[in-house]
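[09:14] KT: can someone run the structure on this one? pasting the chain below
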Amino acid sequence: MELPPWAACLIIVLATTLLLKTILSRCRRAYNLPPGPKSWPIIGNLNLIGPLPHRSIHALSKKYGPLMHLQFGSVPVVVGSSPEMAKFFLKTHDTAYADRPRFAVGKYSAYEYSDLLLAPYGPYWRRARKICAAELFSAKRLESLEHIRDEEVRILLRNLDRVSGCVVRLKDHLQMMMLGVISRMVLGKKYIGEGTSLSTEKFMEMMKEFSVLNGVLNIGDFVPWLDWLDLQGYVRRMKRMGKMSDRLLEPILEEHDERRRLEGDAFMARDMLDVLLQLADDPNLEVPLSRNNVKAITQDLLIGATDTSAMTVEWAISELLKNPEILAKATEELDNVVSCDRLVPLEAVLEPRLPACLYTVA
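[09:31] RB: done, structure tokens below
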């Protein structure tokens, strides 16, 4: 039976791919690789990765050990899955392993790899990290914004008091508080929520989508010649996510730029975005910041800080609720040191001589 033209072309492509793979594997330098499962042609070990990759890799590590080798398509992957291996990669040899792979999520939803999470290791990443440490999160700046944290915490407590006696989904309240804190610190005011152009629900949906897309295993990242097919639909979602983020951030940047133009020489930075825009206009900056760079860092601050901070506090409170004795001890220390009608001050986090429970509750 005569094959249709498309089938003949597919067979030729697959045969050529296998031939090239065989030739390259023989010419490639032999490495002493860690143990790992045997890989299939083209897909490697992708067939062993299920819908929850971290669980699949954990199951494989039980069989092949804390250091193993996997093949994801054309990309070799070494997995460390023990505290010792984590120290080896993240501390002992952190510089050697500091680079980030150029995956599609960084291209489409992080302004061409411009954010701190997905930017490749190099001059830009080091400059952006230094800016965040010295300009945005310095002790002086955080202290100047302490009133924002106090106000938002009091709003949280009032909201919880209104629903006292009812079953409460604490995560929602914590996310609202963190979103209020971060948006006021980074943007100067609340651009998200009631009376704004973007509802809280829409932002939370965007934040959830961002987290999901940063954790997916996109086949096109590991089998490049299949990238254009977008078999899982992830690239389409990444592009949509990038456009949503840009529609949120661009008007905010325009508003900040307009205030700077109107105030002229009398302009004073009121928030972190003002600081980033000032640095972007600095001609003497060693590594220039583009407008997209500013958006990417701002996106990191908004989405990353809101989600991770809320989850951390939720986890800490859940652990206290599961351990009534520790909760009672923490409550007693807070009542004795801070008193029951005051918030924990910022100094409690920075001063090591204060009771240990203050670090958790703060």
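[09:33] KT: thanks! Residues 352-362 have pLDDT under 50 and may be disordered.
[09:34] RB: yep, looked fine to me
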